[in-house]
Amino acid sequence: MTTETPVPVAKRVPTERLHHGDTVVDEYAWLAAKDDPETIDYLNAENAWTERRTAHLSGLRTELFEEIRRRTQETDLSVPTRKGEHWYYTRTVEGQQYGVHCRRAVRDGETAPPISTDGAPLDGEEILLDGNLLAEGHDFFSLGAFDVSPDGRFLAYSTDFSGDERFTLRIKDLASGDLLADEIPGTFYGTAWSADATALFYVTVDEAWRPHRVWRHLVGTAATDDVVVHAEDDERFWVGVELTRSERFILIDIASKLTSEVRVIPADNPTGEPAVIAPRRQGVEYSVEHHGHRFLILHNDGAEDFALAYTSVDAPGDWVPLIDHSPGTRLESVDAFADHLVVTLRSNGLTGLRVLPLDGGDGNDIEFPEPLHTVGLDANPEYRTNRLRLRYTSLIIPDSVYDYDVATRELTLLRRRPVLPGPDGRAYQPEDYEQQREWALADDGTRVPISLVYRRGTPRDGSAPCVLYGYGSYEASMDPWFSVGRLSLLDRGVVFAVAHIRGGGELGRRWYDHGKMLAKKNTFTDFVACARHLAKAGWTAPDRLVARGGSAGGLLMGAVANLAPDAFAGIVAQVPFVDALNTILDPSLPLTVTEWEEWGNPLADPEVYAYMKSYTPYENVAPLEYPAILAMTSLNDTRVLYHEPAKWIARLRATAPQGDYLLKTEMEAGHGGPSGRYDAWREEAFINAWILDRLDRA
Length: 698
Known about the structure:
This protein is an alpha+beta fold. It folds into three domains: 15-69 and 429-695, Alpha/Beta hydrolase fold, catalytic domain (Rossmann fold, 3-Layer(aba) Sandwich), CATH 3.40.50.1820; 78-122; 138-284, 7 Propeller (Methylamine Dehydrogenase, Chain H). The chain is built from twelve helices and 38 strands. The longest helix is centred in the last third of the chain and has 18 residues, at 677-694. The model has no long low-confidence stretch (mean pLDDT 96).
């Protein structure tokens, strides 16, 4: 006789805190005790309940997983990138979860990258690192650093086996193939080599998991002898380190959400004192790239959408203009090469690349014909080159790698990611699908762009099911991207839409500013406006619309569930930031202080406190008729702690018990979910099966 899995019921232990004369009551604060067996038992009970509630979808999950696998060329090889006397690339092998990182010597007269269409190893390859071997015996594996020294002799790499993004840094001698004795635990992302590869710079975090120190390690010495090069005491700021493409300077990047500062060390003098390019000024952001006798400065000083200037390498001082500010054209980065510059920008909601000659001309924009697309620089490690490596995609065009000849302006397609035949045996044809942009009207009259993709012939009579995706924070743009897993939805008649809401960066810095701090609610009302527009325009109907978002996009999901539960048939919230008020009130938690310039500081400002309390999902759960909700989280997530969705689901179940709420916790993963590609495909199949079930397409 089997025992039926019960609905999990979390105990309620009211914890009270007083802020600005207001009492915050948190009945489920006990779930934050990660090491408490009772917490783990509760999460396991939720997982068991989710498995029971979705057991009828097991066949569909297998079908969707196999569709992803069938359409993917599992044994594959990236387009090699040249650096010095080697081509560098990554291979995947059918049946293996992780990539194999390799290089092969450049042969006499070889100018074009060697390409393996079947994914087979290149003749004469050297395996630098095999992720599958490193991952053996571990449920989770992530590679942090992968940094070959300028002379090609050493490889610095770091590994994480829990998902908490705390890496152990090691050095491999590529000449001998041996690992050096050097081992540095507790490191973060970011490394930089000195010019002669005698020194390696890296980053560590403080107790709040804020990257705050840059260290110098001398190869062949003990980690205990490493020296702190910069320690950042202001808790609003975090640090990073990198080597310029010219390999002349090590950059120490110091930034908060609103302010930045860059310090430089000559790469040929790694023990030198870091020099400040420009002292930090509140509200001024800038980044630095080295180019010959000058440092290029991309900045927002009196330039909302940023401008480009330069200053002297020998005596950094005044900023001399190169590209003036142009409202509506957001300059995002600048890349320097010996004979040209490349500016990455966005205008009218689309990304672009502008190549600037050194003669002071206006330069030229690289043109692509599709009305919706994403283009950006790929890996371009060579400083002296007349060719650029680009990456291009759209909602219907798979990831594509191009070379661009700077002199002739000719684009050469090197490789487009293959999409193998699906279940019907037909090859993928982009013309079987359509993409377009529409505009919703927000409550305040703002026009909000929506990108849509669907199978050709999908009806416009309101009968089609739809998934609406959103994010809307940190100036992050949800630019068009191709997804093999998404094809399984499109082929079942589902429309996929992306809401480019305020808080993101799609329409420039002002678009971001109008969706943060005390304007954050614009993010949520924009998303609801997009959902209403899709129904009004005949793309779908509220009972056939599922919303999806993750991380800060998970906050969006929780907020719109409270704001407009009638607009959706279901909501998928991945690693959702749904307990924002309690988190931002606690400066001891990871990353809280650095977030105050994004959300506001409710500890110090009663207006911010009241505003956040009025929208944060956990605080505003009410006895409403909520749509079905699937929350996904990971036990070792350090960015959005697992207890946020756990508490949210518990409060939903207690406050609106008639709803269908599921929580699935990955017990061996971090913010990005499962680490292996097959595990990631299974998670996507799980989510898509739940979505199709909600849309009556299971």
